[in-house]
Amino acid sequence: MILIVGTVGFFVSQTESYNENLRNKYPIIKESEYLIDDAALSFNDRISLAPFIAKIEVVKQLPVYTVHIEDKEVGISADMEFCQFQVKMVSSISDESFTTDSDGTFVITFAKQFEDSYPTLADGTDAICSLEPASGAHSGKCLLFDRTFYYTDSNMALAAYEGDDSLARKICSEIDLVEQIKKIRSK
Hints:
Helix content is 23%, strand content 37%. By secondary structure, the chain is an alpha+beta fold. The longest helix is centred in the N-terminal third of the chain and has 24 residues.
């Protein structure tokens, strides 16, 4: 009996240490300047509204590019820089079709001025996220749809944003998160 308790205690301690190491590797985003990252929507609502959900792997960061923004109604005319990343579609989690290049990759982009509001997309990073096709000057690229972004590492999933109300708010198995997403999408 003591051996079992000792083994369970060791396992729990190892698991907590592993979870802490993952959180250190993937820090939580506590504040976001980007309005779409508003935490008002629940996990269920975000999953229901997302145009497409997939597991991705970041291949590499691409050069920053500039787009001229002009809105005559509000009197704005400025050049804005955008970050972009080539990512590989590992698997589709939603049933909707999604276009990739012939090598299974596509580009995710976002405004450089909001870079700190987004998860770190280092080469080799795996994640489950919601995506939407970009338009206008970004046509052919994708945007992260909202706060639905979960780092995946060693078959575990970890929310990128504070206030997340999914299974992965602390840490869960990737399989459990995917099952939860599929269950919501099937309704």
